[in-house]
Amino acid sequence: MKHNRLVVMMEIAMMTGLAVILDFVRVAQMPFGGSITLAAVPLILLAFRRGAGAGITAGVIFGIINWMIGGYVVHWAQMLLDYPVAFGVLGTAGFFAFKRSWTLKRKLTAVIAGTIVANLLRLASHFTAGVVWFRELAPDGMSPELYSFLYNIAYIGPIIVITILIMVLIVRTGERLFHPETS
Amino acid sequence: MLEHVLIGQYVPGRSVVHRLDPRAKLASLFLFMVFLFVSRELVVLGAAAVLTAAALLSAGISLRFFWKGTRLVLIIVALTFFLHLFLTQEGRVLLEIGPLAVYSGGLLEGFVVGFRLLLLIVLATLLTLTTTPVDLTDGIESLLRPLSYVRVPTHEFALMMSIALRFIPTLLTETQTIMKAQMARGAAFSRGSVWNRLKAFLPVLIPLFSQSFKRAEDLATAMEARGYNGGAGRTKYRELSWKLSDTLIFCMFLAFAGLSLWTRIG
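Structure tokens for the assembled complex are given below, as produced in the milestone run.
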């Protein structure tokens, strides 16, 4: 096994562990469950640092651990979509990786775009999960799409804003973290 | 801020359910999860209720732990029940309260949907209450093994998951140390506006990430020094053992799946 591959594997493990811990640090609390935490930051940082593959792997592992230590299951598809898939897609931020030589403005654009796309995909995953099981549960006459969208945007919206702010701050003061060769 | 961190919901115990092989528990839950929604027959619902009650009673876990983890979802169950109760207009009218009318169809529908949901939540929660995350990881690795024939690195996946779980306490201590160090310098994590709190987190996050990347590098080197060479031919310190009781439990859930399918087709 190549040394570099093993290092990436260990980085995935460490960032997943940190995501679990940061998930307990509440930045703000939403009224209907769903708290605003920084759990996405290590996952997205890893995606930018090591590419989408590593990011997606870390997200899937985080999703499974998250389910293990306090998730809920109401439907098999909801279980997949709310945990491994929802966090796995955060790794797609890695497609927006930037080079050290880029200008600050270009770097910031890449980070913001990547963070937004990754989180929107996560939103889509939670949204679909909500529709799937709400359709199973809700009586006729209620729109599962609208309900699911409102419920999920209510906490993913603030998470997107906060994750972007933190990622921008990290680019400005700790950019070396994005490039494996310098940290 | 981090003192309430309780890693996992696992409640230690020596009950039959605790001692079952995690593979048996995962596979049984999977069957239950899928086939509970296949049929609406009362006999299937009854069988599911018996299975769940038996598992719950033999696990010997107090309801207090259930309440802690599932409060929010149970509210959703109750909400679902009442929505169906008042919005389904089938059958005959049982009760009228002002503009609201309860129909027999609504009562039945609310009961079926809410009860099914409740059973699934109880059984799924029971799995995480009686199985440590490490055992679950071993179980998942073992169940996913067939995928390794199509070159999915299941061993590596499980290894990363185990290491992440193993390092959560270590990383937690590190997080707390850094947070205390920054608090000694006057950082305030739980006061002020959200923006100020975020900025206060930065001097914690950056050293934390930096140290964790360094730890990853050290770990990789240490593993190589001890001859780690990927999954092939690697032996385990803790082996899962499939017992007769596991077969019995799994067969019970298999029978449930069969019953559910049979009432649907028949």
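Chain B has one domain: 2-265. Chain B touches chain A through 71 residues (CB under 8 Å). Further analysis is deferred to the final report.
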